[in-house]
Amino acid sequence: MRQEFLLFAERAEAVGAKIFIHGGAVDRHFVPRNAPTPIQLMGDIAVGILTEWAETNRGHVMAIRIVDEDEKQIWGMEAQLEVGRPPGAKPGQHFRQLLTIRGPFPVPARGAYKIVLELDGKPQDPPFRLWVEDMPA
């Protein structure tokens, strides 16, 4: 099981084996200089996971975390997933799962953050990096 993609988007939705992304890979978020904290990151997280044939039909743990520059978790969620083999699947085939997690996501302050995906306790690469900063004058 491995990450195929991980990104932050203005809007994302997974429907019928497709993922619809609007404003994908948004990595800079501007907030008014007087914005109160925590800052609400408006957007969605989009995830693509590939599961190998031998990893199907058993439980797995997926965790998504937002961490700050010091690797301190500021938001997170865990979920159980189990991928089955559909009728007609070919031996050796990989199976794609598309997921979205709806925001907003609270962050404590302006700064650099990473969205990290873990599958069965193993961090996946690459994390998605983003920055929260004041709007330009």
Overall description:
This protein has 137 residues and is an all-beta fold. It has a single domain (2-134), classed as Immunoglobulin-like. The chain is built from no helices and twelve strands. The protein has strands spanning 2-15, 18-24, 28-31, 39-41, 44-51, 59-68, 73-82, 95-102, 105-107, 111-119, 122-123, 128-134. The strands form three sheets. Strands 3, 6, 7, 10, 11 and 12 form a six-stranded mixed beta sheet that branches. A four-stranded antiparallel beta sheet has the order 2-1-5-8, with no helix packed on it. Strands 4-9 form a two-stranded antiparallel ribbon.
Name the helix and strand elements from N-terminus to C-terminus, one letter apiece: EEEEEEEEEEEE
User: So what's the overall shape?
Assistant: elongated
Helix share bin: under 10%
- Main beta sheet, described? 6 strands, mixed
Question: How many separate structural domains?
Answer: 1
Number of beta strands: 12
Low-confidence runs of at least 5 consecutive residues: none
Radius of gyration: 17 Å
Beta-strand content bin: over 45%
- Give the CA-CA distance, first to last residue: 45 Å
Write the layout of secondary structure elements.
Elements: E1 2-15, E2 18-24, E3 28-31, E4 39-41, E5 44-51, E6 59-68, E7 73-82, E8 95-102, E9 105-107, E10 111-119, E11 122-123, E12 128-134
Parallel strand pairs: 3-12
Antiparallel strand pairs: 1-2, 1-5, 4-9, 5-8, 6-7, 6-10, 10-11, 10-12
